[in-house]
Design goal:
Blueprint (H helix, E strand, L loop, with lengths): L7 H19 L1 H19 L2 H5 L14 E7 L2 H13 L3 E7 L7 E7 L3 H6 L3 E7 L7 H12 L6 H13 L4 H14 L10 H10 L1 H7 L8 E4 L4 H10 L20 E6 L3 E7 L5 E7 L3 E6 L5 H17 L9 H11 L7 H6 L5 E5 L12 H6 L3 E5 L7 H12 L13 H8 L6 H26 L1
Helix pairs in contact: 1-2, 1-8, 2-11, 4-7, 4-17, 7-8, 9-10, 12-13
The protein binds 2-oxoadipic acid and nickel (II) ion.
The site of 2-oxoadipic acid (OOG) has 11 residues, from strand 1, strand 4 and helix 16.
Length: 463
């Protein structure tokens, strides 16, 4: 009998839903975020902005309510390499490399996500995955102790490992195994109120960097946030404040525009959670830790390398003049400076396409009546034969990610800049290369154009 395997897209969708249910019970404010986002999305899709956004029907609109990203922080190369194998079973692959050293965050990161257009449409679940850079602990004894603690832990259940191996050797998982796999892998992301270090060690690690304490002191890489996607982040931010959620003062990323680009994000501060620390004498000490927080995001069009360079340059110019203060006192001035500077970015899909700044999916708006062989893409767009719809940005932004990390670590964590990290060191730990996000977007654009031109040509021949 031929083996029938569960579709990796379906395993990923099940896993994303299971993660959402678990996080909702662990962090009730996440449920508030889901409600706010659901409401603002319904309002946007039912309002005038829907036509401007021009999302591809079905493909981009139906996935929104299922859409979310999570984040975890891993301790060792072995953990990262195994995590990559686990995610691969769900059709998630490492895309992009994020160097956060300039922001004094002692990790480097990638995002595991689906890569093909159909897989993204089925379920775009992504996990921002960071690897701790232990070499940044200057105190040699503490570094050795942290390494020993990490080496001694196993963040995957035996069944999660066995099912991953089974999927690899058989080429997939049966429906039944896929269900078991989802439940087993979920365990890795669960919050543990029992630390695996005593409170003195925790405090020492915390003094070195709060992120180091967060990774080293626990049994596993608890999911630290789960972020739903909103179509109107300013409305969602207002909704967060109205519900009394302690939202960050500024939205990270580009300013509000008619045609959204890249990624805008806002978060609320980490929760203070009770933790039991074991003591050498067998008793427990109760302490607390802040790890988990809430975040929402709005995704816009993916930029080309040219568009991204313009984005980076424009943002850097603003931030050289004014940096958002963590207490929010200059939030209005920062947002105004951002608005002003981003006037350099055209704010229509067509201009973004014409100037080679962003990536688009093509569709046939109307079959041509005459010959089109010698018409350029621009001419076909002008003639209303081809239509454009934005390719949604599926990745992350290092400056924004640094802002998210920092706002949730508190100001005390702002420390010296670290030595530069290294992509090749990260890939060596991962055991694979990270995909180039720009190449993935370009490929989706080219394929959509080729498909449309082919159909137009065929229709022309049979006419
Ligand atoms: C990850 C922070 C980055 C984002 O959306 O940019 C991130 C973390 O805090 O572990 O999730
Ligand atoms: Ni995030």
């Amino acid at each position: 009998m031929a083996a029938r395997f569960a579709n990796p897209d379906a395993i990923r969708a099940d896993f994303s839903a299971a993660m959402s249910a678990m996080y909702r019970s662990e962090v009730p404010a996440y449920g508030d975020l889901l409600e706010i986002v659901e409401q603002t999305n319904a309002e946007t899709l039912g309002g005038a902005q829907a036509a401007v956004l021009n999302l591809t029907p079905d493909e981009d609109t139906t996935r929104i309510s299922q859409e979310r990203h999570g984040a975890i922080r891993l301790g060792t190369a072995q953990e990262l390499a195994m995590m990559a194998r686990v995610f691969a079973v769900m059709g998630m692959y490492p895309v992009g490399y994020y160097d956060l050293s300039a922001a004094a965050v002692p990790v480097h990161s990638t995002a595991f996500r689906p890569v093909s257009r159909t897989a993204l449409a089925a379920n775009p679940f992504r996990v921002f995955t960071s690897l701790l850079r232990l070499e940044l602990i200057a105190d040699e004894a503490l570094r050795a102790q942290a390494a020993a603690i990490l080496d001694g832990r196993q963040i995957f259940t035996p069944n999660a490992i066995a099912l991953t191996q089974k999927a690899e050797s058989a080429g997939g998982l049966s429906e039944q195994d896929a269900q078991a796999f989802v439940a087993e892998v979920l365990e890795t992301f669960r919050w543990h109120a029992d630390a695996c270090v005593d409170i003195q060690t925790f405090e020492q690690l915390n003094d070195t960097h709060r992120l180091i304490a967060d990774v080293v002191s626990f049994k596993g890489p608890h999911i630290n946030h789960l972020t739903p996607r909103t179509l109107d982040i300013d409305a969602a931010q207002a909704g967060m404040i109205a519900r009394g959620l302690p939202a960050k003062a500024v939205v990270e990323g580009p300013p509000r525009r008619e045609c959204p680009i890249l990624l805008r994000q806002t978060s609320f501060k980490a929760l203070e959670e009770k933790v039991n620390f074991p003591s050498k004498d067998g008793t427990e000490t109760i302490g607390s830790h802040t790890a988990r927080f809430g975040e929402i995001e709005q995704r816009g069009v993916a930029l080309t390398p040219k568009g991204r360079a313009l984005y980076d340059q424009t943002l850097a110019a603003v931030r050289a003049e004014i940096l958002p203060a963590s207490d929010g006192t200059n939030a209005d001035a920062y947002m105004a400076a951002l608005d002003q500077a981003f006037q350099v970015f055209p704010d229509s899909w067509r201009a973004l396409y014409d100037e080679g700044l962003a990536h688009f999916k093509f569709s046939i708006a109307q079959m041509p009546s005459g010959k089109v062989d010698d018409m350029s893409v621009s001419a076909l767009l002008d003639a209303g034969v081809l239509g454009l719809s934005p390719i949604i940005y599926e990745d992350f932004l290092p400056v924004s990610a640094a802002g998210i990390f920092q706002s949730n670590l508190g100001d005390a964590a702002a420390q010296d800049r670290h030595a530069a990290s290294s992509k090749s060191a990260f890939e060596a730990a991962l055991g694979a290369e990270t995909a180039d996000e720009f190449a993935l977007y370009a490929q989706i654009e080219q394929e959509s154009l080729a498909t449309c031109l082919d159909q137009i040509r065929k229709a022309g021949q049979s006419a």
